Amino acid sequence: MLAGTFLYTTTDALSKWLVASYSIGQVLLIRSVGGVLLIFLAALLAGRTAQLRTVRPAWHLLRSAISALLLVGLFYGVKHIPLAEFVSIIFASPFFIALLSPWLLGEKVSRHSWIAIACGFIGILIVTRPTPDHFHIAHLVMLGVAVLVALLVITARRLALTESSYALNFYLYPVTIIAYCRWALVDWIPPTPTDWLLFLALGCSATAALGCTIQAIRYSRPAIVAPIDYIRMIWVLLIGYFIWGEIPKSLTWIGIVIIVISGVYIVSHRGTVPEA
Q1: What's the pLDDT tens digit per position in 117-141?
Q2: CA pair distance 25, 178, nearest whole angstrom
Q3: How far apart (Å, rounded) are the C-alpha atoms in residues 131 and 154?
Q4: How far apart (Å, rounded) are the C-alpha atoms in residues 166 and 177?
Q5: Predicted local confidence at residue 108, as pLDDT
Q6: What is the Cα–Cα distance from 127 to 138, expressed in whole angstroms?
Q7: What is the mean pLDDT of residues 60-87?
Q8: How many angstroms separate the CA atoms of 140 and 125, rounded?
Q9: β strands within 151-211, DSSP E
Q10: Can you say how many angstroms the Cα of residue 82 is from the centroid of all Cα atoms in its chain?
């Protein structure tokens, strides 16, 4: 899981680097096609291509549509706001999972969890700071992304009884490929050989991060594994500083700490695992 946190951060950093030179549509298309190919290759090498079959195509179509919206929001957010703020808002997804679970999964939320949710949203307000000199529309977009991440987690839990991990990840990409293909081709810029390597690294890091998370959850309890994901913030702060010279302001630090503590509490007490 520690490796997974670094790989997710690498994915975020590569995305931020590439969208500075290429359109969001182009980066999305290359990443999505690469993701499909890498997951298929992993299933092929493991001799588990049969696990790509599904008996619930409509649910996968819904998840793929959610993923298409989520990914474009992710790339828009990572392009326009500092990496630490970007990731800290993604960490709000457990709050939305807890909010939606009573209605979509029939789960109960304890009084202490409601308090943690409220504290988490206070942390989000501190990080985004809706003032003219700090707020960017990307902050609002990233809140929407956190909701979509929550929906992906909830739908994955509904499908987990009949669908394999390969199928759950493989079918995330078709709608993205179809929806953004024209956008990518219209704004297409031929990547340099170096950037092709970065695109390859992006696809590999994103796919490997998912694989690490799946294996960690398989061999340990979610309540133990999930809080480790918040170690990602350490990698984010280091990469943001050394590559882009980003230093969070004091208020941002306070908001990040509140979000992380609240998120760890909710996840560890409910066994809910956020995905990114």
Answers
A1: 999 999 999 998 888 888 999 999 9
A2: 11
A3: 33
A4: 18
A5: 82
A6: 12
A7: 94
A8: 11
A9: none
A10: 16
Mean pLDDT of the chain: 87
Domain extents for the chain? Answer: 2-270
Q: What is the CA radius of gyration of the chain?
A: 18
pTM of the model: 0.85
| CA pair distance 206, 51, nearest whole angstrom | 20
User: Which has the closest alpha carbon to 266: 114, 76, 49, 105?
Assistant: 114
Q: What span, in angstroms and rounded, lies between the C-alpha atoms of 42 and 6?
A: 20
Could you give the CA distance from residue 105 to residue 103 in angstroms, rounded to a whole number?
6
pLDDT score of 266 = 84
Q: Is it the case that residue 162 has pLDDT exceeding 90?
A: no
Return d(Cα 123, Cα 91) in angstroms, integer. 11
Which residues are CB-contacts of 247 (< 8 A; sequence separation ≥ 6)? Answer: 241
- Neighbour-count burial for 159-170, b at 16+ CB within 10 Å, e otherwise: beeebbbbbbbb
- Spatial separation of the C-alpha atoms in residues 177 and 30, rounded to whole Å: 9
CA distances from 230 to 4, 6, 113, 121 (A): 11, 11, 18, 17
Q: What does the alpha-carbon distance between residue 63 and residue 172 come to, in Å, rounded to a whole number?
A: 6
Instruction: Pull the structure tokens for residue 55.
Output: 């008996």
Identify which of 143, 122, 115, 151 has the alpha carbon closest to the alpha carbon of residue 272: 151
Bin 106: left if φ > 0, else alpha if -120 < ψ < 50, else beta: left
Predicted pLDDT at 144? 96
What phi and psi, each to the nearest 5 degrees, are found at residue 131?
Answer: -120, 155
210 vs 39, higher pLDDT: 39
Burial class (CB in 10 A: 0-12, 13-18, 19+), 123: buried
